[in-house]
Amino acid sequence: MRILLVEDDPDLSRQLKLALADAGYAVDHAADGEEAHFLGDTEPYDAIVLDLGLPKLDGVSVLEKWRKANVATPVLILTARGAWSEKVAGFDAGADDYLTKPFHTEELLARLRALLRRAAGHAAPALVCGALRLDPRAARASVNGEPLRLTSLEYRLLHYLMMHQGRVISRTELVEHLYDQDFDRDSNTIEVFIGRLRKKIGADRIETVRGLGYRLAPLQGETAEA
Amino acid sequence: MRSRRLRPPAIGSRSLVRRLIWLASAWSLLVLAVTSVAVTAFFYAGVISRFDQGLRELAEGLFAGASVDETGAVSAPPLTDARALRVYSGRYWEIAELRDGRLHALERSRSLWDSELPGPAADRLTLGATVKYDTRGPLKEPLRAVALVRSLPGRQAPVVFVTAEDRTPIDRDVRSFGLRAAGLLVLLGAGLVAMVIIQVRVGLKPLFDLRREVVAVRQGRAERVQREYPTELAPLAQELNALVAHNQEVVERQRTHVGNLAHALKTPLSVMLAEAGRHSGELSEVVARQAEAMRQQVERHLRRARAAARSQGSRDRTLVEPALEELARTLERIFEIRGVMIDWTAPSDLAFQGERQDLLEMVGNVMENACKWCRREVWVEAEAVSDRRLRLTVEDDGPGLPAERRGEALERGARLDESAPGSGLGLSIVDELVRAYGGAMQFGESARGGLKVEIELPRA
């Protein structure tokens, strides 16, 4: 397992490098945003530990650049700023987990393990429908390269529609696939989620087929492969 | 949110409205009073001069027609004035001579019977003079009199021709004129005062509008003063906006400074904690304990600085729905490995009166807590309770919290289960913030099995 550690504080870098190496990871280290961006963009890491306060280019910008370039590597953010508004911004930029300083090294290692396990779970290739792209490995979707901000239900809904693009899918089928068995759902709630999803990806991408269900298709003029 | 009702200020002692109304009314009333007195005086002068004219003509007639015989006795001309014949009719004449400073009647009208007309002060009776004066008649009625002092051929001493008439009718006329004039002017005055009041209210309306807008800014319903104001008020409105902007900037800068300091300490603290964790022994233990104490201090002061900034700063309006969406999205990702689902609803126009980051902090911590403890699902519902309050309810399907332990959940640093991740500060932070906003937080039992947390907050 190869990890990129991005941290500008020399003491913390040294400690974390040691701890990560002790845990059996191969560790590369970057001390500023530009170097981090280059390494993350070119090397196939299994996970990245990213500090947000970096010289040259800040962590959030680095992360956004990676995600725009479809770098799907799981990223764990390290930051001194633990307010929810900052966490939301971090996750929206494309983070997979978030650890607030000061932290215990064991907690970092535990989070990293969870992240790697999760990434291994979604090993499927990316799905594409016109300008819409969904990457199951990172559990992320984008339109024209712009990341979409989806809730987990919206993501699952889009995932299912994309796996079956071009086909009409009934509401009942969607309900069965989106919820576990022990959830008793009214199929009307699907309409609400379709509505929210349309707002985010563009209303015309999901067609309502009266009495039958919904169909996802590329917009006219878009090719199936983006 | 409906604010306290704003009226134009009551006319109180320090009121600009009152001052303007007073000044304008006092001046109009003074002008009107002077006018009424003057008009009455002019009317009186006109009437009395015509009255005097009649008396004088009668006296001139007496003088012209009077004859003196060889003994020196004066006889009056035969007059046809019927009123002068009837006793005490109110019209009198007398021909007298001036002797020893007094008038001695030579001839008089029949109407005088045997009384005499009082003359004017003797020193005014010089030869050739025409004296107009007021006196009393035989019945003590007020008289207007004219006396001519002339010399007659054949008599050495000057002769005085006096004519007089009861002035009661003209006094009555003048009085009734005065009353009517005063009445009219009082009406006019009332109209003027009413006009002044209307003018002041209408004229000062932009000022009341401005005040209403400033209140809206303070309450966070508006970001700045927006209306177009008249030339005199426009600079004030601009200055107010500049002040609001400056205030926000200062608050923001202060917050940034404190934040930077606190955050700058966190990396060294991480290093100390990590270093202490890698070694064992007394030194490591002390360092670890102290680093932890420092971390708590930093958190506390960071929050306190933010609370201070909050109480100074203007209050924003934050829509609840997008905040819930952001938090749900973020938390579902954080708890993705456990497959936590967050089901949230909020009216799209519901807004919290306060800052976005504070709303995220309060709801985020409660939702995170619910996500930690839930089995699979978390429900979040936002609703309006009244015009001024909104309620956020967060429920989960976890094991819940027995009533007797709910108080502990708010204690700083308390962790009800050491096995669940987190610093344990979450809910006490929420409680502190909710209180700062004048809200309330309470725990209950969810129908879905787990804990139910309700937060009431000001609504915008």
Can you describe what's shown?
The complex is a heterodimer of chains A (226) and B (460). Chain A has two domains: 120 residues, Rossmann fold (3-Layer(aba) Sandwich); 90 residues, Orthogonal Bundle (Arc Repressor Mutant, subunit A). Helices cover 42% and strands 20% of the residues of chain A. Chain A contains eight helices and eleven strands. Chain A is elongated and about 65 Å long. Chain A starts with a strand and ends in a 10-residue tail after the last strand. Chain B has 460 residues and is of the alpha+beta class. Among the domains of chain B are: 106 residues, 2-Layer Sandwich (Beta-Lactamase); 66 residues; 142 residues, 2-Layer Sandwich (Heat Shock Protein 90), CATH 3.30.565. Chain B is built from eight helices and 14 strands. Chain B has a five-stranded antiparallel beta sheet. A five-stranded mixed beta sheet of chain B has the order 9-11-12-14-13. In chain B, strands 1-2 form a two-stranded antiparallel sheet. In chain B, helix 1 packs antiparallel against helix 2, helix 4 runs antiparallel to helix 5 and helix 6 runs parallel beside helix 7. Chain B starts with 15 loop residues before the first helix and ends with a strand. About 2% of the residues of chain B have low confidence. At the A-B interface, helix 1, helix 4, strand 5 and helix 5 of A face helix 4, helix 6 and helix 7 of B.
